[in-house]
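Final report, closing paragraph on structural work. Over the funding period we assembled a curated collection of sequence-structure pairs, and we close with a single example.
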Amino acid sequence: MGHVSVRVRICSLDKSKCADVEALVDARATLTAIPRSLAETLGIEAVRRDVVETGAGLVEVERGAAVVSVEGRETVTEVWVSDIIGRVLIGVATLEMLGLRVDPRTGKLEPSPLLLY
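Its predicted structure, as stored:
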C-alpha cells in the first residue's frame, strides 16, 4: 500500500497565505505537486520550468517552493505546479524531509529517521 490520504497545510514561504487541504501521499512518487489554482491562491511563484515524467507521459510543469506541514511536522520544500492534477500530491522527497514514511502494513504515516547521507 503506497497511497495514504492525509490532511496537510500548504503555505507560501512567508506563511502569509495558507490552505488546509486533503492530500494524497504517494510512496512511489518522488516529487510534491500542487494544482495551479492552489499555487495562485497562495502566491507561490515559479522559479523555473521542468519536464517531468508522469503516468500520463512527459509533461511540463513549473517549480516553486512552499511550506508543507503534515501531522505536526513542517518543512520548506520544492513543489511542482501542475495544470493536470486536481489535488495535492506529496512525494517521497517531502516525506523524507518531514521525517515520515508510509507503513506498508497499516497504510498510515509513521515517523522515520532522517537520512543525512
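The beta strands are 3-11, 18-26, 33-35, 48-54, 57-70, 73-82, 88-90, 100-103, 108-111. The two ends are 26 Å apart (CA to CA). We thank the funder for supporting this effort.
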